[in-house]
């Protein structure tokens, strides 16, 4: 994208072995949902989801284990979750 510049750059943090799973931006680009696969005991894995401020990376909400964000509402004020 010519002339574009990143607003925020952040390394996905979590337990050793965590893997980036998905990223869902809000339509107004104010928020972003980040889903990470966390390793668990005996090889089981759990998805963890967080809602971030897209400009600063600040965590605004931690969703329960196994909850994935499917999409944001058109105004970015609500999320559709699965799980």
Q: From the alpha-carbon coordinates, what is the Rg to the nearest angstrom?
A: 14 Å
Note the quaternary state here: single chain
Number of extended strands: 6
- Put simply, the count of helices is 0
- Main sheet properties: 4 strands, antiparallel
Query: Can you give the mean pLDDT?
Result: 83
Please indicate the percent range of residues in DSSP E strands (runs of 2 or more): over 45%
Distance between the termini: 34 Å
Order of helices and strands: EEEEEE
Query: In one word, what is the shape?
Result: globular
Question: Could you list the spans in which at least 5 consecutive residues all have pLDDT below 50?
Answer: none
Strand order of the main beta sheet, please? 1-2-3-4
Instruction: Give me the secondary-structure category.
Output: mainly beta
Indicate the percent of residues in helices.
under 10%
Could you characterize the architecture of this molecule?
The protein has 83 residues and is an all-beta fold. It is 0% helix and 46% strand. The protein is built from no helices and six strands. The protein has strands at residues 19-25, 31-39, 45-53, 59-62, 68-72, 79-82. It has a four-stranded antiparallel sheet with strand order 1-2-3-4, with no helix packed on it. A two-stranded antiparallel sheet has the order 5-6. It is globular and about 45 Å long.
Keywords:
6 strands, 83 residues, mainly beta, 0% helix, two-stranded antiparallel ribbon, four-stranded antiparallel β-sheet
């Amino acid at each position: 994208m010519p002339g574009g510049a990143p607003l925020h750059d952040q390394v996905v943090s979590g337990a050793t072995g965590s893997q980036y799973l998905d990223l869902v931006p809000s339509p107004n680009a104010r928020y972003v949902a980040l889903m990470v696969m966390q390793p668990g005991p005996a090889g089981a894995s759990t998805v963890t989801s967080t809602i971030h401020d897209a400009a600063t990376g600040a965590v605004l909400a931690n969703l329960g284990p196994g909850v994935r964000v499917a999409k944001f509402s058109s105004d970015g004020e609500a999320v559709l979750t699965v799980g």
